[in-house]
């Protein structure tokens, strides 16, 4: 269920994964309260090592929101959450995989609610985001960010 997926050739649709990836990293996390912070740190470290820190605040926010949703709504108790960051020529993509059922959707939270705005934030900050099925149980929720082209060494 992609959201805001454009016809741009570099938009990285839900079926595009490592095709043409320049760099990628993956880490598996236990389902814990500390997972969103650990996922943010993991993504931040990967981007710093790659020298790709433009839009870092946006990417960290989306990573945190996607990981939080996986902890609260996606991964069953005792489950794992996989976070993957892929650097493509002009797009950076964050994926958060969990073993839970259901499809996350944007929803309007009441003004008095203290939660329920995560995907609204992701939609507002990321260039594209969506949900794709995985082999086996669960889903992958992803966010993509355009950046300047990676220069060849």
UniProtKB/TrEMBL annotation:
Pfam families: HATPase_c_2. Residues 38-143 form the Histidine kinase/HSP90-like ATPase domain. The keyword Repeat does not apply. Keywords: ATP-binding, Kinase, Nucleotide-binding, Serine/threonine-protein kinase, Transferase. One of its GO terms (molecular function) is ATP binding. It comes from the Bacteria. Transmembrane segments: none annotated. This is ATP-binding protein. It comes from Streptomyces kebangsaanensis.
């Amino acid at each position: 269920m992609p959201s805001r997926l454009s016809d741009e050739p570099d938009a990285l649709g839900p079926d595009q994964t490592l095709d043409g990836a320049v760099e990628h990293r993956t880490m598996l996390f236990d389902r814990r309260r500390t997972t969103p912070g650990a996922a943010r740190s993991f993504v931040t470290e990967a981007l710093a090592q790659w020298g790709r820190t433009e839009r870092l605040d946006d990417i960290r926010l989306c990573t945190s929101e996607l990981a939080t949703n996986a902890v609260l709504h996606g991964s069953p108790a005792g489950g794992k959450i996989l976070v993957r960051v892929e650097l493509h020529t002009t797009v950076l993509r964050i994926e958060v995989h969990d073993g839970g059922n259901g499809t996350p959707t944007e929803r309007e939270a009441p003004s008095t609610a203290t939660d329920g705005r995560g995907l609204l934030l992701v939609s507002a900050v990321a260039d594209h985001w969506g949900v794709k099925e995985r082999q086996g149980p669960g889903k992958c929720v992803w966010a993509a960010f355009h950046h300047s082209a990676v220069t060849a060494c």
